[in-house]
TrEMBL record:
The gene is ZNF778_3. Residues 35-62, 63-90, 91-118, 119-147, 148-175, 176-203, 204-231, 232-259, 260-287 form the C2H2-type domain. Keywords: Metal-binding, Nucleus, Repeat, Zinc, Zinc-finger. Gene3D superfamilies: Classic Zinc Finger (3.30.160.60). This is Zinc finger protein 778. GO terms for cellular component: nucleus. Its main location: nucleus. GO terms for molecular function: DNA-binding transcription factor activity, RNA polymerase II-specific; zinc ion binding.
Length: 288
């Protein structure tokens, strides 16, 4: 693919008339970001970067992918997208040797090793490694805002990437493939969780008993065993289960035990096989 810059025609004089020079050099006292966008207020260190930024407001996507219909405002975004077709990952982590398509992805990944969480929720002080994770947390935990709606089934989601993952359920698209067993997945997170099964890597450790788990969800469910709070408690017998799924299975056992009742002596059983064995004792008594 030729990644040379596509030739475009742009009326620079028209931009200067619409955005006067005075607005481009606001906050002269600032040492770094002196050039401010009159439309959204975002600031930039260089005037050429500001000029490129205006393309976002005009939705003029100058850079076209040669493989698919996707187009982009910035050349760097198009190059990064093109690597999804070539699977090129030139940015490699020095700690674990995992590769990434761009430098920003590598920087975010390093926070896993350093445990850096620079984004903090104003409501509950919970911290996150990525700004997108913080925004998703605020919408799902505090505001319950779901601005992204599926046009097929009308389900709404807090973030656009969750909606995109959901849409693949309708299209049956599975773009993420395991390099080891070639299994395909609709979401990248599902692939990452699957890969851990091959490597036997268990990065999530319990602070109390030091037991390790492949998934954060499994660690969270395990933590309920140490907690004094009663999570997922059965209303019939008081048993505490570690997850909603296990509680449902346990309650189904109650339902089976109530339905599988001997009609002769009113004994109840969890399993049909046990009821049949019990029924044989009545037949023996009658024969005697």
């Amino acid at each position: 693919m030729d990644l040379e810059e596509k030739k475009v025609t742009i009326d620079v004089d028209a931009i200067k008339k619409e955005f006067p020079e005075e607005s481009l050099v606001s906050n002269n006292s600032a040492k770094k970001k002196r050039f401010e966008c009159e439309i959204c207020g975002k600031s930039f260190s260089y005037k050429c970067t500001l000029t490129e930024h205006y393309y976002y407001h005009t939705d003029d996507k100058r850079y076209q992918c040669d493989i698919c219909p996707c187009a982009f405002v910035k050349k760097s975004h198009m190059i990064r997208h093109y690597r999804t077709h070539t699977n090129e990952k030139p940015y490699v982590c020095k700690e674990c040797h995992k590769g990434f398509k761009d430098n920003s992805g590598l920087k975010i990944h390093y926070r896993l090793h350093s445990n850096e969480k620079p984004y903090e929720c104003d409501a509950c002080n919970k911290r996150f490694r990525q700004k997108g994770h913080l925004n998703s947390h605020v919408r799902t935990s505090h505001t319950n805002e779901r601005p992204h709606k599926c046009e097929i089934c009308n389900r709404a989601f807090g973030t656009k990437w969750i909606l995109n993952n959901h849409l693949r359920i309708h299209t049956n698209e599975k773009p993420y493939e395991c390099d080891i067993c070639k299994c395909r997945f609709t979401a990248k997170q599902s692939l990452n969780e699957h890969v851990l099964k091959h490597s036997n890597e268990k990065p999530y450790e319990c602070d109390i008993c030091k037991r390790t788990f492949t998934l954060k969800r499994l660690l969270r469910e395990h933590g309920h065993r140490h907690s004094k709070r009663k999570h997922h408690e059965c209303e019939l017998c008081g048993k505490i289960c570690t997850s909603d799924y296990k509680l449902i299975c346990h309650q189904q056992a109650h339902a089976r035990s109530q339905s599988l009742q001997c009609q002769l002596c009113n004994h109840s059983f969890k399993y049909l096989s046990d009821l049949r064995k019990h029924s044989q004792t009545h037949l023996i008594e009658e024969a005697v």
